[in-house]
Fold each of these.
Amino acid sequence: MLCAAVVMLVTVAAVVQLGLSRRRLNGRLDHVRQTALVSQGGAAIVEAPGLLERFGGFLAKGPLIGQAEMALIKGQLATAGFNRPGGPAYYVGLKAVLALTAVLADWIWLEAKTVPAPLLMTVGTLLAATLAGWRLPDMVLSRLAKRRRDAIERGLPDALDLLVICGEAGLGLDIAFERVAREMKHAHPELGSELAITAAEMRVLPDRFVALANMADRLKLETLRSLVATLSQTMRYGTPLGQALRVLANEMRRERLTKFEAKAARLPVLITLPMICFILPCVFIVVAGPAALDLINTLGSR
């Protein structure tokens, strides 16, 4: 009985120690990311949480959000470039405030009407306003994340070329990432900030490929996953790094050119409907208008 109690106590202590070490590592990574962003020209983050962040943190602890939803929100914010430690709680608080504001505005509008609205319409509009206020930040965040991913994807081939130069100059992988981040700060600031964060994580994490995998998970780009796989295979099997990166950069440029060609091939289909609705009626008016006026004058003179 005593042995079982001792084993259970040791197990609980090990689990608690593992959780504390992971929490310390995550806190250290957040601090390193903020330092990297400040070095790239970003603004310093104030550590004191505001009212909105505290309100969002209170909601996140309840059954409405949950830890899984908070992890998903954190990933979406990281994809859009918002790496503030209290960002998920602030975002949840913002969504709740917007939902309450939409409900209040809709209620004021319904009360201001001279004719009272039916109960079903009142409940429906209030629910629609709540849903719109709650979902509006998600739509904006999704658009911002897509725009940032596109900007990063445009700069990846140039970054790979610079990585080839740094690798052939004898720089290590973390130093090469840091150097490329400084060079890309003005041409592609989004990519420069991500490379700076990855270089900072490489200096903290015991395995540098975990930092590369974190970058791929943050941005959710297949090209970055290909880059991570290429770098891991290169370091594991000793293949030439410069040659592998050159091939990957050329593949990215060809893929980008293929996307441009696909968009160009869709243009005739996309402009057909505007031509039918707006251009062809104008052409008919210009061509048939004088004849119609002459016909009207001729019939009117009889």
Amino acid sequence: PAEFITLAEETGLIVPIGQWVLQEAFKQLSAWPGLDYLAVNISPRQFRDPAFERNILEIIARDPNVCHRLMLEITESCLIEEFEDSLQKMLTLKRLGIGISIDDFGTGYSSLSYLKNLPVDQLKIDQKFIHDISTNTNDAVIVDTIIAMAQHLGLGIVAEGVETREQVKFLNERDCFHLQGYYLGKPMPAEAFSALLDASKSPLDADKAFYG
């Protein structure tokens, strides 16, 4: 997938691919009313495309009621490039009720000033900081700091690349409960996720559904 996405980004094919992904995301949000929100990665090229806002408007016109349950994940480097243009696009998304998450947080620009100038809802901690949090003091301190900063700024926080129970424990102890990684589940077809979502509705089955 990494090679495919890189090639699509270079050739511009990522724009129609990203448009299709957004269309499918809206369909699934309508089909999954019990899902709090669905996050979709937006590539730098797709975000910078002049038709990006128009494409979003065309998609949400089919079911505007699910906008508030859509979260778009955008890398911090993408947001900083052409700052004013990024700001206007993000303000448009916010007016529509769409959430904005900074993907791979901590791996891009070192300046944090954009956090107070851009309408961001969530930070997503990059997996390179999560991998060794149980054994690497520096990684643990970095993750601690990002979580604390997000909490003080009133932002949501997601940890990606979670693969062990020790990592879950570390993050939960710091009130970080939104996790992503193979420990919780691997990529799966929509039909399989629907079954998982149904199973998680029962408190007795939720732990079984998510932890096996």
Amino acid sequence: MDTEHLFKRSIQDREHFWKEQAREIRWFRFPEQILSENKNSYPQWFPDGELNMCYLCIDKHIEDGFGEQTAIVYDSPVTGQKKTYTFSQAREEISKLAGGLASLGLQKGDTAVIYMPMIPQTLFAMLACARIGVIHNVVFGGFAPHELVVRIDDCRPKALITATAGIEIARRIPYLPLVEKAIELAQDKVENIIVYNRKLADNQHEMFDGLTDYEELVKKSEPADCIAVESTHPLYLLYTSGTTGKPKGITRDTGGYATALKFSMNYIYGVNPGETYWAASDFGWAVGHSFSVYGPLINRNTTIIFEGKPVMTPDAGTFWRIISEYKVSVMFTAPTAIRAIKKEDPDGELVKKYDLRHFKKQFLAGERCDVATLDWFEKYIGVPAIDHWWQTESGWPMVGLMTSDGNYKIKRASAGKPIPGYDIKIFDENGLELDAHQEGYLIIRLPLPPGALLGIWNDNDRFHNSYLSQYKGYYFSGDGAIKDEDGYIFITGRVDDVINVAGHRLSTSEMEEIVSSHPDVAECAVVGIDDDLKGQVPFATVVLKNGSDISNDLIEQQIVQTVREKISAVACLKNVMTVKRLPKTRSGKILRKLIRTLLDGKEFRIPSTIDDEKIIEEIQLKIKEYRS
């Protein structure tokens, strides 16, 4: 496969290129128009095409004679449950749930929030929505009520689909009290709350009025057929951290996304229909949408729903057990997971227990993977560990390697090369393209390829300001990068105030709002500092109000608890350090990058705009004192 030629065609002859790729999926009406613009002059793909995502994922394979192939494997070490579903069995569950949603009055264009754990019913709910044109928003199960409220009030769902509980290792997290609190706080009142009762042994949950039982709804409903939706019809909304603190509702289309996912499974991941593909991600993240649900099912791969963790469920060999037991061919996870396994099993003893003969490739994304972790993986697992890079906004890889024919070259610490369709440049602040080995902003010439975001739900101004206003005619990724002489790209990290904790993007400005709400805090700065396990973790520096005599230990304890309650434990804020003052520019802007550099103990240049250089020494002494 000539990947250079493929890439050139995707940029120079993009409409023909993507028309060919669109033929790889089955349309109800094949598009005559390949590329156009919406009313805001933003590019959109295949606008006059019609299709249905659930049909592509399920019904098509049954029509093609693969109804008895296993579509879904559910493996839950936290409950000891295992279950498989063929494509035919999955269709029965999905079509009846879709019929149930329709019986409650949901129809094409309505929205539904799905707040559920890693169980098959979450996937069924996503596909049931897609089947009847309902736009879903999956929220990470266990997210705090405040996070649920933001999403409910923004997308105004006609239904909220949830479960009685989720399980984090050995801890049961009841969802209904969280849902009840969110419903109470939300301005928009949700008409239908559908609850899947997991019937766990310690199933003590407070039911409240107005709930619909998921299983009863499925049992009494007639199956619904797939409806045709236009290519540009939103399949889902997925909220991602924004620099203003309020999450952005990234909106995904149907036809462009389906085309891009089919292309990804074939060319990037190089996985054949019928093989088992496993993305170890929560459904609530972009990876869970694209590569636990839609991508593998479009490609007729068996997908795995894993309700567990890389370690402690029961040990650091659980990934290798899954790969061995279900003959996983290609896997995708975050470097954090591999680092956690490496920490627990440094000599790879647990790997030896399992037959990994079917395992061909390990893909990594979500954060930069350190070389030591890649070395460990290569030594003990013995299959290629392939880093790649993308965003919630893109929905599929932007930088990576085309691995389908095995003729690819990994460069350590690089995420790969631009993927076909992504015309990537490295610019400086003035919009000038940089030479090789110079760090700048990673930007992409418009149009973005199929599969990328349609926009931000109900907020075109914010969409334009966040992504399109920095460089005219280009998409601004918010990441820094370096390109080498061979075209390989090295991602250097976020350039805004979003940090990446174990593959989860979290807004430091949202955390700052919470930290600064503490009665003793005058001002604060939250930055992401380097962490061996999670890539980055947040660290708060706070200035106390005059007259406050609260101890550092107590304020740290209180702030950590508040952030957990308002965002969730995923935020991982554990460090709060009090300082006399924060370093600022002469115009009063907090120098967050300087704080981060000092906390990481890295070399730094004194910013020319700093209002008082003496503060650097003050903070260095404070860090030494705090860490001792």
